[in-house]
Specification:
Blueprint lengths: L2 E13 L8 H8 L8 E13 L11 H13 L4 E2 H4 L10 H12 L7 E11 L2 E5 L5 E13 L8 H8 L8 E13 L11 H15 L2 E2 H4 L1 H4 L5 H16 L3 E9 L2 E6 L4
Parallel strand pairs: 1-3, 6-8
Antiparallel strand pairs: 1-2, 2-4, 4-5, 5-6, 6-7, 7-9, 9-10
Length: about 270
């Protein structure tokens, strides 16, 4: 049975988005501030997930020290570089998060030892924006969002005493609340013109009505979906999926919801 292991790495780099075949106006329309002629930069975080059988002698899938050397050699070529200006990989493609993670895959995967395969690369451009790649024909792009809401856990199918026994403090009649945070991940081919699976502006536009609907509200008292069922995080993550799937369609891959920093719920299409 395979075991997945993950390790994070960091590098700093600058980049600029610009399509030479478009007018300046079209570039600004699609890429916004990212068209700045001098570029801008990020502290990128790369999460490397490998898969393999546990070696009987070492008890490991891969020696972390070996993985650090392998990935470190690759990232040395990216660290403190201007991706457009210094790296041939991005002469004919946009240095978007989706394209960068695919280039990194092509460089890291062949260097892994026998019996170990690269399962996933996740590249964070910022703490809230990331891209996933599994080595296939598509990539995934994700972003985090947040809303604040009150709720009360109470089931119409249970007696008052049963509700108190089951939900405890969360059954407080006047309610309580959370700063909910959730990740939206979409999947698809990378557009060669933009280097993107989805334009961030389009994704934000798809999510914003949902945020406007839920933020600073009481879930049970103000939303019909939760008047018919307990407003558990399990039901919240399903509701987020249903609302966004209606807008994003088959591109929507996964929703990950934090009710609190310690309580996490996920729903969607399974990983490859």
């Amino acid at each position: 049975m395979e075991v997945l292991t993950s390790k994070r790495f960091e590098f700093s780099a600058a980049h600029r988005y610009w399509n030479a075949e478009w007018s300046p106006e079209r570039n600004v329309e699609v890429f916004g501030k990212c068209t700045n002629a001098y570029g801008h930069g990020h502290n990128y975080v790369l999460e490397v997930t490998t898969a393999g059988e546990v070696d009987l002698a070492t008890g490991m899938v891969i020696n972390v020290t070996e993985l650090k050397r392998t990935v470190g050699r690759v990232l040395e070529g990216f660290d403190h570089k201007h991706l457009n200006e210094d790296m041939a990989y991005f002469r004919d493609r946009q240095p978007t998060t989706e394209n960068i993670v695919q280039v990194l895959w092509s460089l890291i995967a062949p260097e892994l030892p026998s019996g170990v395969r690269l399962h996933r690369l996740r590249l964070y451009e910022t703490a809230d924006i990331f891209a996933d790649f599994y080595g296939g024909m598509t990539a995934s792009f994700g972003r985090s969002y947040q809303f604040s809401a009150a709720h009360r856990l109470d089931s119409s199918q249970l007696s008052p005493d049963e509700n108190v026994a089951l939900y405890g403090k969360c059954n407080n009649e006047k309610g309580h609340g959370h700063d909910y945070r959730f990740e939206v991940t979409v999947d698809g081919p990378v557009d060669p013109a933009t280097g993107m699976v989805i334009n961030l502006v389009e994704l934000d536009a798809a999510v914003q009505p949902l945020l406007d609907e839920l933020d600073h509200t009481h879930l049970d008292r103000q939303h019909a979906f939760f008047q018919e069922r307990p407003s558990t995080a399990e039901h919240v993550v399903v509701y987020l999926w249903q609302r966004l799937a209606a807008v994003l369609g088959r591109r929507l891959r996964w929703i990950k919801l934090w009710e609190t920093p310690n309580n996490i719920f996920e729903y969607g299409v399974r990983e490859p």
